[in-house]
Amino acid sequence: MAVSTALLGAAATAPAPAVTPASAPASVSVSQPPSAVLGDPYVETSLIFGTAHPDGSPPVTDRQFRGFVDAFVTPRFPEGLTVQQGQGQYRDAHGTIERERSYELILLYPVSRKGPSGRKIEEIRSAYTQRFGQESVARVDHRTSVDF
Predict the structure, then answer these.
(1) Is 69:61 a contact under the CB 8 Å cutoff?
(2) Rounded to the nearest 5°, which phi and psi values hold at 47?
(3) d(Cα 18, Cα 16) in Å, to the nearest integer?
């Protein structure tokens, strides 16, 4: 179903060819719309950071998280990033559903830098899990087009 929806969605958004109706005067034409895709090929990576400690100690604070971003993320992605706060839940390794404050970190980088950027992202995930005693940091990657 998702594949057919994606195919139908792609067909519905494909640009139409220029058309000149047969009954219209020769000087009238309908121009082709501009391309729907602007920008260069990029990867958008979202990292989801939980704040609860499995040992029950106080959660990661805003100040601690900002310090982590300053020390570990910004040096690896100085071009820019976005941080959003949220509330999340997940099932931990013991089967318990954990509800916690969380952060989503969004990074954009050119597809041509996917390899080096991917390694830096894995360094960030590893550093956070070790520093704050987390089971994991979720990672979601999407290909997109970006124009600045």
Answers:
(1) no
(2) -115, 135
(3) 7
Sheet containing 138-146, strands listed edge to edge, beginning at the edge strand earlier in sequence: 82-91, 97-110, 40-50, 138-146
Task: Count CA within 13 A, CB hemisphere, residue 27.
Answer: 0
Q: What is the pLDDT of residue 36?
A: 61
Q: Average pLDDT, whole number, for the chain?
A: 82
Distance CA 49, CA 94 (A): 19
Query: Residue 93 has what pLDDT?
Result: 82
Looking at residue 148, the DSSP 8-state letter turns out to be -
Q: What is the pLDDT of residue 33?
A: 52
- The residue written with tokens 């087009």 in the block is 145
User: Read out DSSP for 54-115?
Assistant: TT-PPPPPHHHHHHHIIIIITTT-TT--EEEEEEEEEE-TTSPEEEEEEEEEEEEEEGGGHH
**DSSP states of 14-68:** SPPPPB--TTS-TT--BPPPPPS--SEEEEEEEEEEE---TT-PPPPPHHHHHHH
Are 43 and 108 spatial neighbours (Cβ–Cβ below 8 Å)?
A: yes
**Quick one: pLDDT band at residue 7, thresholds 50, 70, 90?**
very low
